[in-house]
Amino acid sequence: MMKNNRESGVCSMKAILIGILASMFFAVTFILNRSMELSGGSWLWSSSLRFFFMVPFLLLIVWGRGNLKQLFFEMKTNPAPWFTWSFVGFVLFYGPITFATGYGPGWLVAGTWQLTIIAGILLTPFFYKIELGNKVREKIPVRGLFFSLIIFAGVALIQSQHGEALSTHTLLLSVLPVAIAAFAYPLGNRKMMEVCNGRLDTFQRVLGMTLATIPVWLLVAATGYITAGPPSQNQVIQTLIVAISSGVIATSLFFVATDMVRNNQEKLASVEATQSTQVLFVLVGEVLLLSTPLPSGLAVTGLITIIIGMLLHSLFTKRGIRPKRMAA
Asked: Measured on CA atoms in the order 307, 141, 86, 98, is the torsion positive or negative?
């Protein structure tokens, strides 16, 4: 039993480290999307091109692993769940995020996105587990929620350095869409894990969700062409970078991490909380690439608070669940 708990703790720590690595690649999304908006690129192209570019890379990976046939069989068997939860997890996630970058700086979008660390926990009661042959509703992991609230408090402190200069109009159009995305992403991801039930690997699942939403992205691209014309060469190149870094690498890493702990809601919450480190990576990226001022005052306190919250999450998952004493 002790050995199993140690192995579980090691697995959880690996998942957390993979989640942090994923957040570094995810940060590219917020930096480059903001850069594209500042140069006049339409969010409709920024969102749709990313998924178009993801397809060939993922197809090559899944085909090279000999897993395409199995993926197509799964999608053909359950077409409605595949489209529904892929739409929630990808379209309702990325569309609002790219829209928001047109109305707020990258740090604001990335900071608001951290709602997802709380959203994932609050969605827990929407899922079930099997106990002694009975279907039981999952409970919100209170300790995980507490640690996530600490992290979110740190994010709020970072936002406070800049938030006073923003208008209500800017906050509404940049914060509300991202709040929707923050709930859609973990919901779509968790529901797709239920649909796949361990039968598909991470690359198959990401490719399947991408293919399922291509019809929607074609409509988005057509709207972009009608309203804004074709994308510029610069936007195409930057979106390709986002597709590889965030769409293929980060999404795959994050899905690997969540798959590793998918049967434990508390550990799943810890992995989802790693996305809070995106704020750190976005701040560094914007300072280096977009000449954003360095954080100071409350923002520094916020950074420290985020680190403390992540350490608590990591410590909790490493300890795992202590075994119950055997009855005499």
From this structure: negative
Q: What is the pLDDT of residue 49?
A: 94
Q: Which residues contact 172 (CB under 8 A, 6 or more apart)?
A: none
**Mean pLDDT within 90-99:** 92
First to last CA, the chain: 17
**Stretch 254-267: mean pLDDT, rounded?**
79
CA distance 305 to 34: 26
SS3 state at 130: strand
**CA dist., res. 236 & res. 48, Å (int):** 11
Of 257 and 317, more confident: 257
Please give the model's pTM, rounded to 2 decimal places.
0.78
Radius of gyration of the chain (CA): 20
Q: Tell whether the model's pLDDT for residue 138 goes beyond 60.
A: yes
What is the DSSP secondary-structure string of 70-125?
A: HHHHHHHHSHHHHHHHHIIIIIHHHHHHHHHTTTS-HHHHHHHHTTHHHHHHHTGG
**Do the beta carbons of residue 68 and residue 164 sit within 8 Å?**
no
User: Looking at the chain, how many residues does it have?
Assistant: 328
Output the CA–CA distances (angstroms, integers) from residue 48 to 51, 72, 132, 191, 210, in the order listed. Answer: 6, 22, 45, 23, 11
Q: Which two tokens stand for residue 208?
A: 């399947």
Quick count: other Cβ atoms within 10 Å of Cβ 178?
24
pLDDT value for 120? 76
